[in-house]
Amino acid sequence: MPKDYWRNLKKAKMNILTFDYLCLVIISLLGIKLVKQAKGKKIFLLVLSIFFYAYWDIRFVISLLLYTLFIFKMAILSSRSTGKKSAIITGAGIISSVLLLFYFKYMKFFLKEIFGLPEAAIHIIVPIGLSFIILSAIGYLLDVYKGKYKANQDIVEVMLFLCYFPKLLSGPIERQNEFSKKINEMIPISKGRLWQGMQIILFGLIKKMVIADRVGVCVDAVFRCPELYSAPSILWAMISYTIQIYCDFSGYTDIARGVSYLLGISLEKNFDLPYSALNPGEFWRRWHISLSSWFKDYVYIPLGGSRSGRVKTYKNIMLTMLLSGIWHGANWTYWLWGIIHGIAQCICRLWGGLREKYLPNKNSGAAKVIARVCNLVFICITWTIFRADSINQFLLICKRVITLQQGIDYFYVWTGPYAVIIAGATAYGYKKNNGHGLYPEIGKMNFLGQVVFWVAVFLVIGFAYMGNMAFIYNNF
Question: Which residues pair with 113 in a beta bridge?
Fold first, then answer.
């Protein structure tokens, strides 16, 4: 095997695609089956989650435990207080969380970009899953402050809410009260549940290892040196990345949800046919749903939402999308990506109002198809900003595409078939489930179902790309 395989395998230690993670899942299933008391099951899952985090980097375990203890205490203090005192306590918890996130994720960027320090002189290691942990914690503090529910008095439940290993690295972002209900009402393991959970995991493995990682070969090659490639090759790589990021992230979510489903805990849905969206606003209601809901509930609505007139609505959209871009990482490309998505949503809102006023009946099937295609092209272009190393690289890519520059022709053979498969699966799910995605259930006792299942297993074993085991959203 190539040297890169072993290097990537080492980097992906306890990644959800590794043998180590499989052993962790098996141990967790056995433990959940053997431990009878609900409290014992929660403690057992918490210990495994802390072990999982320690396996990534043991240096951050103490910090993780201290932070979760801090959030636990701040929520209780806020719940026991009223008025200004409660607001101060909640504010202190949120500000501390934001400062923690700023230090680990953005301090290096500011020292480099603003103060000109060389990158080699800045030694800041970002704890894995930090952004998702902090968003969950902030949401919990705000819900308690607003009185949506009382602060949880069980420290094990709060720590498990923040550290639960299937969702620790890249979500989905749960709400504490809902997650608490799920872990207190864990569904017992059964053959039917194991079969269904394995199917969900299998779909995720196909998305990640067979599709995302393979087209990622093309993406990495072209984006590494776009100045060497022809305009059609760059366009092909842009399409490839649109496929890669969806299958990579939704594949992770499928695996995480499948593992949690086996354990008797159903995690929130995170994707719902995002590339079938009519406009950017609908795209965000279908893509990374838990993150979009978080920004809607804790940023957009508190700013005033759409209740204070058109101008303020546009301002709220822009601020929300800018913060979303900033959350994704310390790079001007993410910020520009958020701003452009904000502008696009404002334009679509304006156009929607004008169309409703002047063209109320112009909503034909052909118009919807055109809208979906245009929106997908927009998403593809903005994913290019998201993937580019810098704004200058993105501008170089645009220049080479627009001016039809010559260069190396590289048309990765897997991109075309995968694009057709995803388009077909999206159309099938949209039609079959009234505009929403679905997992086709493979009948356990059905002969055809058995054939489909084992063909899918063969696809993973035979066509999985083993050159890169890292997930894109683990970086956030």
Answer: none
Q: How many residues does the chain have?
A: 476
| pLDDT score recorded for residue 2 | 36
State how far the Cα of 337 lies from the Cα of 343, in Å rounded to an integer.
Answer: 10
What's the pLDDT score for residue 46? 95
Q: Please compute the mean of the pLDDT values over residues 463-470 and round it to a whole number.
A: 71
Q: What is the pLDDT of residues 135-160, one digit of tens each?
A: 999 999 999 999 999 999 999 999 99
The per-residue pLDDT for 362 is: 59
Distance between CA 174 and CA 179 in Å, rounded?
Answer: 6
**Among 15-19, 89-93, 304-308, 465-469, whose mean pLDDT is lowest?**
465-469
* Cα dist from 2 to 8, 89, 168, whole Å: 10, 53, 30
pTM value?
Answer: 0.89
Q: At what angle do helices 213-224 and 231-262 cross, to 10 degrees?
A: 140
Fill in the amino acid letter for 416: G
Closest CA to 410 of 208, 248, 226, 246: 226
Residue-wise pLDDT for 235-285, tens only, equals 999 999 999 999 999 999 999 999 999 999 999 889 999 999 999 999 999
Per the CB < 8 A criterion, the answer to whether 261 and 193 are in contact is: yes
Instruction: Quote the CA–CA distance of 233 and 228 in Å, as a whole number.
Output: 10
Residue 9 pLDDT > 50, yes or no? no
Q: From residue 241, how far is each of 15, 49, 336, 466 by CA, in Å? A: 21, 31, 18, 18
- pLDDT grade, residue 7 (50/70/90)? very low
- Any residues with CB less than 8 A from the CB of 215 and at least 6 apart, and which? 240, 241, 243, 244, 247, 412, 414, 415, 418
Q: Which residue has the tokens 């949880």?
A: 152
